[in-house]
Amino acid sequence: MTIQKSYLDAWAGGPSGRAFGRGGSSPAPFDAVSDGDLAGPDGSHPLASIRIEDLLRPSTDRLSGTIELDSPMRIGEGIHGVARITAMGDIDARRASFRLVGLSLVERRESEEHRDRDGRVTSRDDWVEAQGRLFEELTFADVVLPAQLRAGQTIEASFAIPAPRLGPPSGHAGCAIVAWAVEARWDIPMGSDQRIAAVVPLRQHPDLLRAGVLTVGAGAMHDSWTTPEGATLSVDPPPPVEPGTPLAMRVAWPGAPDGRSARLELVVDVDAPNGGQTVIATTATSIEAVRAGADLSIVLPDDLPPTLDAPDLSVRYRLRAVIDIAFRPDAHVERLVVVT
Questions:
Q1: Helix, strand or coil for residue 279?
Q2: Whole-structure pTM over 0.90, yes or no?
Q3: What is the pLDDT of residues 10-30, one digit of tens each?
Q4: Domains of the chain, with CATH numbers?
């Protein structure tokens, strides 16, 4: 029997930081979630229960409206849409600009020691908090917005701006988030800036992967790959593969050692400050089947993050066959698989 789980469900769990007075932070326009919800106890993943869309504050108090985007949107291509904005009050800004901003929101493990008057440690608090920063802020002067608006005034602006040339794509890795947004922003002197914003779900471009822009590892883009142990690991369809689609995997390892049992797994490795390894799908099989050719067929969870390298975050996928050997370390063979 194949056991499969939703990606983010595999990371979720634990109360929020509000239970013990801790909090994280995320910059505008990704500041809609309470700072207490961006923290949790040691061992937790507070970001796992927060969607990228939940983070965005779509408008401030003196503006209403929408930014509508055409789709699909991929790295290295264009972002097209129209902004329709109404002023709810007078706005007198130094400047108005149209921007594309990229967010890196990453969980980190934190601790605090409590000492007595003699300097001896009496207790220690350990927790996890997510801290965000805008790693990209691109302004597009050819999208013209008026700096002054009167209450009730409505403007409409179409735009066609370039997506980031090399990425990274959007992704929610459970313990870290990469997100993009477009925003129409009014810079208010001696006051709070006003903005309308929309999340931009940027997908990875397969052609960039094939061109080697992202180092994905040997064999990761092949339909079939043979390991030094003589095992052949195949996938159908050939990578890159998309979340939400069927994936058939086959492992033939003629020289597999004897053992108690065998299993096939699809594993995601998240290299981040509070990251780790998660098994997305697994199926038990026999060693004889692995030697002759064993299969694992699943529908990839639609919430999988793409294979990516971003600030404080790297995501990679591996298909592996594992032989459980009594009283010795397990034997295994594996290959990389690219997800877009």
A1: strand
A2: yes
A3: 888 767 767 668 999 999 999
A4: 11-203 (2.60.40.640), 208-337 (2.60.40.1930)
